[in-house]
Amino acid sequence: MAADDPANGRALRPRGQRTRQRLLEAGAAVFAERGYHTARVDDVVRAASTSHGTFYLYFANKEELFRALADEVATAMTALADEFPDLAGPGADDRLRAWITRFAELTDRSGAVLRVWADPVAAEAESGPVGAGPTATVTDRIAARIATVAPDLDAHVAAIAVLAMIERTVSLTTGPDPAAPDRAVVVDTLARTVRFGVLGG
Amino acid sequence: MAADDPANGRALRPRGQRTRQRLLEAGAAVFAERGYHTARVDDVVRAASTSHGTFYLYFANKEELFRALADEVATAMTALADEFPDLAGPGADDRLRAWITRFAELTDRSGAVLRVWADPVAAEAESGPVGAGPTATVTDRIAARIATVAPDLDAHVAAIAVLAMIERTVSLTTGPDPAAPDRAVVVDTLARTVRFGVLGG
Amino acid sequence: MAADDPANGRALRPRGQRTRQRLLEAGAAVFAERGYHTARVDDVVRAASTSHGTFYLYFANKEELFRALADEVATAMTALADEFPDLAGPGADDRLRAWITRFAELTDRSGAVLRVWADPVAAEAESGPVGAGPTATVTDRIAARIATVAPDLDAHVAAIAVLAMIERTVSLTTGPDPAAPDRAVVVDTLARTVRFGVLGG
Amino acid sequence: MAADDPANGRALRPRGQRTRQRLLEAGAAVFAERGYHTARVDDVVRAASTSHGTFYLYFANKEELFRALADEVATAMTALADEFPDLAGPGADDRLRAWITRFAELTDRSGAVLRVWADPVAAEAESGPVGAGPTATVTDRIAARIATVAPDLDAHVAAIAVLAMIERTVSLTTGPDPAAPDRAVVVDTLARTVRFGVLGG
DNA sequence: AATGAATGAGTGTTCATTCAT
DNA sequence: CATGAATGAACACTCATTCAT
After folding, report:
1. Does the beta-carbon distance from C181 to D157 stay under 8 Å?
2. d(Cα B153, Cα B150) in Å, to the nearest integer?
3. CA–CA gap between residue B84 and residue D34 (Å, rounded)
4. Can you give the pLDDT at residue C136?
5. C-beta neighbour count of B17 within 10 angstroms
6. CATH number given to B68-199
7. Chains A and D touch (3+ CB pairs under 8 A)
8. Which H or E element spans position D127?
9. E9 C1' – B56 CA distance, angstroms?
10. What is the pLDDT of residues D41-57, one digit of tens each?
11. Chain B: nearest CA to A18, how far in angstroms?
């Protein structure tokens, strides 16, 4: 009812919690399928099998829903970044493959949000649905790791490059495309490229 | 009602040529600034200082304008791909740096189009404003080069990875951001990463 | 579904009485602050610190709440009208000033309701939230007084004029406006104008 | 079209001029009939037999249309105020009757706008659709006239009272009501009341 | 070849009212 | 008695596209 703080705390009862959750999931699905702009609130509402009114009971507007989703991803992302493995030493390749696999899984789930989020243009509008902040955090942490093993590189740029490569490659090689390469091959290739690319010859 | 195929040949007189050109340039600028969805025909028209009526004299619709721009980029892109250098042998690094620089320049001019074009979601709608075709072409040619020097890699995936890394890194490190790293540093870092990443240890 | 006639008697227990009262007061405040149309049931409910459900336990709808408030005012108004003083004879001015002062006090408390109530447009919708009835009663009684002292006037029109002048002037000169004239001055001016205006030269 | 300055100059061609005019007239009618809040843009558009799109070609929004109308009224009102007659001397009554008649005619045409405009609540929202400014101007000019003939009165308050009486009485005694008093009687009564009310005994 | 004007389907959002607990 | 949750009909506004000159 025009509550002033739809998304905020507001101590939801169990039923409310469930509804909100349903909306979040529906939102993720719809954004994934149609992209931010093309997604209609109506799609989300329908996917969550609720009404328009209910939607605005939980989120101030479409953007707010996106932001909520993005926050979730940002958290997962940052956590993952903290575990970016050491690229040198024995077992480095295994560690890296494991990390990329987890990254890919996160992408699978939240790809759409990530993509919109990474879209510089969308991000511009009033610092964007979300703002580039979180990406920066992730990059920073990876840069720190890179700095320890490849002091000759500009760690920041390298981190961006590594992340960009992983993210885009994973998302480009995913999908219903029958010719899509095997996930294992993708992970292997990426791991190898990242490792040698960063460590050098 | 005007001609049935506004965009096509239709043998434009000099004046018409100029108007069409103005619209293309305006379109590139506006798409760059606002992204495909957020860009209004009105913006384009205003930037080209013409009228709506005129716009539809030259392009059947917004998508058609985009397609025209994308075609230009696709052509340039394919040409560039053909010149992707040999990664082995003496001078490889210089060659690669030169190539990346040219790629970055192309990105500078046509970044927006590239970005939208690469957006899987935008691309989905009726096989997308343009369809992934051209990207595929580019990837194929680079894959061919990679195959010759790194037979142990899945050349296709590697090509995607390399291109993804270059494109995104360049576009992420470009812009009015005062903290943006130097272009030369970016090119150096990318060249090194690509070369070692592909060639291995 | 609750009782069929929420607003009516329904013999409320003490607690219910208090809740209903709280809603009435909240309603008065909110209508005053925002006007009939702009006032949301949510505002009222929030001001009364209850829930939507509860609101509809006591009033069938927003209009019913308004009607209840208007009825209160109408009663007070009619009573006041009965005491409209004789405009002739000694002490007339004092009597009139006293009456206007009481009128102003009533306005202070119920100004918003009065205003909405007097709004011909609001009043139109299905004979309005309330209908012009009560105003008519008040006018009639004042007209009777005027008829006795100024037989040459159209008492009905004069009554409307007098009431209109008093009501609007009071409400226009009230408020947080720092430049608002002193209430005493307003009352004096009105009393004089009414008396001479009605009695003539 | 999203023209940046719909209402503004923009040098309308004859056709545009006509459309804009039609919208203004439709707006006046609809506001009169339904009041500001209850009036839907759709009503206006329908009354002007145009489309929604066209409406927003000429006015940024509903409020802007109202503002345009209010500006017209304000101008007429201020002009009329300048001609508020001398209340003393021979022929005063005739002059006053003539003035009130003209005022009533203005009210007939623009009553709705005036009413909304005068509504303190509507006026509050961001200084209201229009703001009380113009009313103040009118009051000031009338106050000046009153000051010359009744130095003992608070001219400002008296001016408000006079204007309030005239405006409300006229609008209350107008309308399809079959029992509505004759306009001539209303004007006579008002003229007499104003004159004696201001001049005193 | 060009342009200003017109269109209307589509979309986000609000809010009075009803339901379930 | 009371409440949080749900509903959906309205409504304002946008923008790609077409028309008339």
Report:
1. yes
2. 6
3. 71
4. 76
5. 11
6. 1.10.357
7. no
8. none
9. 20
10. 999 999 999 999 999 99
11. 29
